[in-house]
């Protein structure tokens, strides 16, 4: 493990310890950090910006790889794993793949 990999692992641990809260991913309690992504969508008639509430979850948690349609409950609100314009519903949060950044849409 090189210096950058150790740094990414350290930052992931600090994020989990200091910035995470408990959410329910498909009804399972999971530590996650709440974030946001703004998608720029070109419909052919103009540009639209769409906000996504993101949940950053360590790949070392027992959550399976995120899939479209999964549900996350946080603060008495349900979010569906979803991304606009055929974008992937999740990405790795860094180049060392320490955490998933999961894009969602509020559904209730």
3D structure, described in words:
About 15% of the residues lie in helices and about 50% in strands. It has one domain: Thrombin, subunit H, CATH 2.40.10. The model has no long low-confidence stretch (mean pLDDT about 95). The termini are far apart. With about 110 residues, the chain is of the alpha+beta class. It has a six-stranded antiparallel β-barrel. It is built from one helix and seven strands.
* Share of helical residues: 10-25%
By CATH, the topology is Thrombin, subunit H
Mean pLDDT: 93
Number of strands: 7
Strand content: over 45%
Structure class: alpha+beta
* Alpha-carbon Rg, integer: 15 Å
Strand line-up of the largest beta sheet: 1-2-3-7-5-4
Secondary-structure topology with pairs:
Layout: H1 3-19, E1 21-25, E2 28-42, E3 47-58, E4 71-74, E5 77-81, E6 90-92, E7 99-106
Antiparallel strand pairs: 1-2, 1-4, 2-3, 3-7, 4-5, 5-7, 6-7
């Amino acid at each position: 493990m090189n210096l950058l990999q150790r740094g990414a692992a350290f930052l992931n641990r600090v994020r989990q310890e200091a910035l995470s809260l408990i959410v329910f991913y498909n009804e399972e309690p999971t530590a996650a950090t709440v974030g946001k992504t703004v998608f720029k969508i070109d419909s052919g008639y103009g540009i639209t910006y769409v906000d996504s509430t993101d949940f950053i979850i360590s790949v070392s948690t027992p959550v399976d790889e995120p899939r479209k349609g999964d549900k996350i409950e946080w603060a008495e609100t349900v979010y569906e794993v979803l991304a606009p314009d055929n974008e992937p519903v999740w990405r790795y949060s860094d180049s060392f793949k320490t955490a998933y950044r999961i894009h969602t849409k509020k559904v209730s």
